[in-house]
Design a protein that fits this description.
Keywords: Cytoplasm, Metal-binding, Ribonucleoprotein, RNA-binding
Number of helices: 27
CATH superfamily of the largest domain: von Willebrand factor, type A domain
Subcellular location: Cytoplasm
Oligomer: single chain
Protein name: 60 kDa SS-A/Ro ribonucleoprotein
Distance between the termini: 25 Å
Radius of gyration: 26 Å
Largest sheet: 7 strands, mixed
InterPro entries: TROVE2 (IPR040322), TROVE_dom (IPR008858), TROVE_dom_sf (IPR037214), vWA_Ro60 (IPR056800), vWFA_dom_sf (IPR036465)
CATH class of the largest domain: Alpha Beta
Family: Belongs to the Ro 60 kDa family.
CATH architecture of the largest domain: 3-Layer(aba) Sandwich
Length: 526
């Protein structure tokens, strides 16, 4: 019994660390939710485990999830780490703060962690020696001692997040530089100035850092008639858009310089903006650069770019407009680039790792599935679900597919199919609307005696089912002797719907859908 309770506690803690909740629901978009209040309500398992003497287990799991990249968002991990860092159990607190550098891999993470610890303090004064030491160690880590320009780049790119600046943290932590390299950087970050005459003239790292600072400072001072100088600085010092004066980000020449230094995700995300500035002329060097990146399977794999990311970019780019922001953006479409995005979509499948589980993918056949996904720009629920079906057919070795309408119809999806072919196979032109009972996929699997490790149901709002839905899953597990079969319900067009049992650790309800949600689903199945 104790072993079962320990496993349930571990699974509930995992729920919070990965989903940000312990009730088996993952919200893709939490903009309308008070995140801190939500975290506080759903992280009580952490306090209980610490009070039961399991604080070290909590910290160990936080570090494991973080280092393995299992969580789609860092917020829950950082909140959990902050709870442990501010608790009254000494060993747990010290263990949590020892993990700070490993888990807070960017300044944004560090700022958010500090924000969460300030919430945990509840009126107590100061940080305490242990937290000051941990933050000081972050700035003095070996990676920065051996490469001070790396700390400079981070310090100038991520100046302020979550209400804190580097200057705030350095002062609050009483950071004492361990090397003259760190001292040089902190002097600049805190005071906005430096004096290289106090350092060894022969130190190449100091010279390199000094040149970078000069480049950043010169970029800050650039005006509208200094575009040539600015683009030269961007190329010479690999400056990012955060280093550029906001009023100069409307310059096509600035974007031409920036695009050559962009990592893959940023390049794909900014294709519309790059086209808006009319940089992608046919046969131009800029077009060639885009094509070389989109069509290089190895680059796609190294960037770990998900097929759904490419699908979203493809759907948006070929329309020539964006509706995500309050200010819609339009651009001329380069058809060669649009075609390359389609090819890139299929090439990016190689970056996905199989779960090696037996999986049933069920797709809602109702007309509601033509609605756009809440968090995928200009992609319908049906298109996204079909893309997942195609992805699973290519990545997994044992996956079945069904279309759910008044009845359940098996669909043959083959690895050599393309998106258009699979979309046609899931065509609902001859199907009736969805039955009121969303338990049909489980009943079909039970009647067919199909053994699955996971059943994933892509639907719209997940309003149908209730007790029948959960009872059908219970019966399926019981009759086929599969007590731990996972069930995932993806409410693709919903903002706040759930029909799964929150007490069942083998059930997950995804509200909304995007590439991070797909990662959550995969990790849950795995």
């Amino acid at each position: 019994m104790a072993g079962q309770n320990n496993e349930k506690d571990r699974q509930r803690l995992l729920r919070f660390l990965i989903y940000g909740r312990d009730d088996g629901r993952y919200f893709v978009n939490k903009r309308r939710v008070n995140v801190v209040r939500d975290f506080s309500q759903h992280s009580r398992i952490i306090d209980r485990m610490i009070s039961e003497g399991k604080g070290m287990d909590v910290v160990g799991l936080i570090k494991e999830v973080s280092m393995c990249g299992r969580a789609p968002k860092q917020g829950p991990l950082l909140y959990a780490l902050a709870v442990c860092a501010r608790c009254n159990d000494g060993p747990t607190k010290r263990a949590a703060l020892r993990c700070l550098t490993d888990i807070c891999r960017t300044p944004t993470h560090l700022f958010q962690f500090v924000k969460f610890t300030s919430i945990q303090r509840e009126g107590s004064r100061g940080w305490g020696r242990a937290q000051r030491k941990a933050v000081s160690e972050w700035y003095n880590q070996a990676a920065f001692q051996n490469n001070p320009k790396k700390l400079l780049r981070l310090g100038t790119k991520y100046k302020k997040r979550h209400g804190y600046t580097h200057r705030d943290l350095i002062r609050l932590a009483h950071v004492k530089p361990k090397t003259h390299h760190i001292k040089f950087v902190i002097q600049y970050i805190v005071k906005g100035m430096y004096n290289s005459s106090n350092f060894d003239d022969s130190d190449s790292m100091i010279k390199d850092a000094e040149l970078f600072i000069n480049g950043v400072e010169q970029a800050k001072k650039c005006k509208g008639n200094d575009i040539d100088d600015l683009t030269s600085l961007i190329r010479r010092y690999n400056l990012t858009r955060e280093h550029i004066p906001t009023n100069l980000l409307n310059s096509p020449d600035v974007w031409r310089a920036l695009m050559y230094e962009m990592p893959m995700h940023a390049l794909v995300r900014n294709l519309g903006r790059i086209s808006k500035h009319e940089l992608l002329h046919p046969h131009s060097p800029e077009e060639q650069h885009i094509l070389e990146n989109l069509l290089d399977e190895e680059k796609l794999r190294c960037a770990k770019i998900h097929p759904l990311t490419i699908l979203t970019a493809w759907n948006s780019y070929k329309l020539g407009s964006s509706i995500r922001n309050e200010s819609p953006m339009q651009w001329p479409v380069n058809q060669t680039v649009a075609d390359a995005l389609e090819t890139s979509f299929y090439k990016s499948f190689s970056s996905c790792v199989a779960t090696n589980k037996r999986i049933l993918i069920a797709i809602d056949g109702s007309e509601e599935m033509i609605k756009p996904v809440v968090d995928l720009q200009q992609v319908s629920a049906r298109s996204a679900a079909v893309a997942v079906a195609l992805l699973m057919s290519r990545v997994e070795s044992s996956t079945d597919f069904v279309l759910v309408s008044d009845s359940v119809s098996p669909v043959d999806v083959h690895p050599y199919d393309n998106l258009e072919t699979v979309s046609f196979k899931f065509s609902t032109s001859e199907c009736a609307c969805l039955s009121d009972d969303a338990s049909n996929p489980m009943e079909w699997a039970m009647t067919s005696s199909k053994q699955y490790d996971a059943i994933v149901f892509f639907t719209t709002c997940a309003t149908n089912g209730g007790n029948n839905f959960n009872e059908a899953m219970r019966q399926y597990r019981s009759r086929l002797g599969l007590p731990s079969t996972r069930l995932v319900v993806v409410a693709m067009t919903s903002n706040n719907n759930s029909i799964t049992n929150p007490d069942d650790i083998y059930m997950l309800n995804v509200v909304g859908f995007d590439t991070k949600a797909m990662k959550v689903i995969t990790e849950f199945i795995r």
